[in-house]
Amino acid sequence: MTHPSLSTRDLTIRFGGHVAVNKVTCDFRPGELTVIVGPNGAGKTTFFNMISGQLLPSEGTVTKDGVDLTRLSPSTRARHGVGRAFQLTNLFPRLSVLENIRLAVQAQTGDGRRFFRPAARFTDLTARAERYLEATRLEKVAHLPAATLPHGDQRKLEVALLMAMEPDIYMFDEPTAGMSLDHAPDVLDLIAELKHDPSKTILLVEHKMDVVRKLADRIIVLHNGELLADGDPDEVMSSQLVRDVYLGTAA
Amino acid sequence: MRGTLTVKGAALLIWALLLFAPFLFQDVRQIEVAARIAIFIVLVASYDLLIGYTGIVSFAHTMFFGMGAYGVAIALKQMGPGWTPVLLGSAAGVAVALVLAVGIGLLSLRVKAIFFAMITLAAASVVLVLATQFSQFTGGDDGMTYRTPDLFKPATKLLVDAEGKVLSIAGVKMNGKIAAYYFVFVISAVLFWAMLRITGSPLGTVLKAIRENEARAEGIGYRVVAYRTAVFCIAAGTAALAGATYAVWLKYTGPQTALSFSIMIDILLMVVIGGMGTMWGAVIGATLMVLAQYYLRDLMEVAAGATANIPLLPELLNPERWLLWLGVIFILLVYFFPSGIAGTIIQKGDKA
Questions:
Q1: Which CATH architecture best describes the domain A6-91+165-247?
Q2: Are A230 and A24 a contacting pair, CB within 8 Å?
């Protein structure tokens, strides 16, 4: 088995007296797509926030390839190769689609500090950004402000931003949330394509069970902030415990 | 694109008028107005880098302007006229502005916008008080007058004709006053051009990204505090250079011309009138506001004279009420151009 690229140890966060995530220890490996499931309020997004740096844990650690990320800022983690897409669309609304993607590209190359040459003359950056435009089939709307796109396209742009960061760890938080059935497959196909690269670790929070079955190499189940189950998709989905949590019979 | 073209065209026309101002407007007061417009374009554009591009609200912009002005003024006062004090004074003013900008930036750009604004307000008040208290250096409330390099003396002959007299081109004497005006014009134009380059560069896109969605900018790998501090320094340094240039032009520096909060309010009004987040808006806003400050009274005097026989109107149009009318014009502008003149024209025109 390959070395884990991302590990959490006893990851815990408390908000006042409420323990939102409780001692989650988990390893994620390159070439593996892990789907994180759990009912609303289970702590999935909070768990993500601690990995990508939007929240600092009360206890526990996050490491990537042996580097301790636990206390680093989101931007430093991004430069360490942890990329995150958000559940609620989280773009640069008044910038064009192309500018949105180019921002992610130039964050990678470090060209964001270049302050005198017109951005349009960085043809290499634009070329790279256009590759992701094509990959996400957004070429036609490249010059429209992100805010004017239909919801489905905004979700795709969200994925394009993440791809343009070229991270080692891809974190998707409900990428198909609020999407119509005819748009959802586009985004899922994009994620499926990412799976072809064995060096990438993919984490995905998702509710739709057909999506989970189609994409998952492994499933972890969070419930009330605790790691309830971890393993092969079929096994986890058929276990009585998970059924109880989802169908509510345990309560 | 039509809206953008209209705005750019108007702004370039203003720059062209400024370029030929000494030939087009030969009255002393008119040249004064032209120089003030050029300086304020730079000041407003540098402020727009903060408020319009990056979304940083600061009330310390006049403070940085004043540092450049006082740097040059003190150097010229102490060392006498010459280029060395101008250079040393500007360098010192810019250096102090940058140090302060880094300090304020690193300490307080992490806090929420409103607290940052309050901190800049406090810093600006402290500097204003210091400038009026240390009167042996700064001339206190009276400010100081000084002589500038000989090149800018009205008696200097820039070009001479065959008889050794000052050469006139198109009726304009090529004397030190012309040199002083073009000194102001060239520096302003270069600074404005540099800021245009910055806003169009990859850095410019990052600044806009921070304005649009700070958390996401951080999330894709930009250290937001560092970028904000950097742009705060760029804006502060540019404002200080504008102040230094204005001090050379005016041959006088005092709290009223370089540090007072009324200048800060003028800058804010100019940014809002012109349109935030576009450099071209700064050109339009600064021009309209300076013109109104200088000429609204004259215009009202004419209007009051013309309506002398009608009851009430001449009273309302009395030149002493010019501030009232400036206020009315401002309210109307904000009402009809909610994104500023440039901003609204760009939005509407580009949609059509």
A1: 3-Layer(aba) Sandwich (3.40)
A2: no
